[in-house]
Amino acid sequence: MPHPSPDRITLLPFLSPGTILSCPDCGMGLYLLVKKVTRDGTFEGAVKPMVDVPEYTRGGSLPKKCPFCKVGEWWYPPGTVHTLQYGWVA
Ligand SMILES: [Zn+2]
């Protein structure tokens, strides 16, 4: 899956608690933010995995794949993520 085009990305200075990181392909919710995360912050320790989702691990500079459909890539380095509420965010 290609990186989302810039016109599909919403620029936000931070993500609020309650934001759900979700798969752009199948739409499944993956991680719930339990803390505010700023642009230079990390999701590590700030997200709770949804049911049947593995614990979030930082690591790697590769896009992260959805554990359900194994097709959707919901995180592109260095910090573009797909959310349920806002779509693509950077
Ligand atoms: Zn998926």
Whole-number count of domains: 1
| Mean of residue pLDDT values | 93
- DSSP strand count: 10
- Measured by DSSP, the beta-strand proportion falls in 25-35%
Q: How many whole angstroms does the radius of gyration measure?
A: 12 Å
Low-confidence stretches: none
What binds here, in terms of ligands, is: zinc ion
Structural class estimated from helices and strands:
mainly beta
Could you walk me through the main structural features you see in this protein, from its secondary elements to its overall organization?
- By secondary structure, the protein is an all-beta fold.
- It has one domain.
- 0% of the residues lie in helices and 33% in strands.
- It has no helices and ten strands.
- It has strands spanning 9-10, 14-15, 20-22, 29-33, 37-38, 47-49, 64-65, 73-76, 80-83, 87-89.
- Strand 8 and strand 9 (80-83) form a beta hairpin.
- The mean pLDDT is 93.
- The structure holds zinc ion.
- Zinc ion binds next to loops.
- Residues 23, 25-26, 28, 66, 68-69, 72 line the site of zinc ion.
What are the key terms here?
90 residues; mainly beta; globular; binds zinc ion
Topology (SSEs and partners):
Layout lengths: L8 E2 L3 E2 L4 E3 L6 E5 L3 E2 L8 E3 L14 E2 L7 E4 L3 E4 L3 E3 L1
Parallel strand pairs: 1-10
Antiparallel strand pairs: 2-5, 3-4, 4-6, 7-8, 8-9, 9-10
The chain binds zinc ion.
Zinc ion (ZN) binds next to loops.
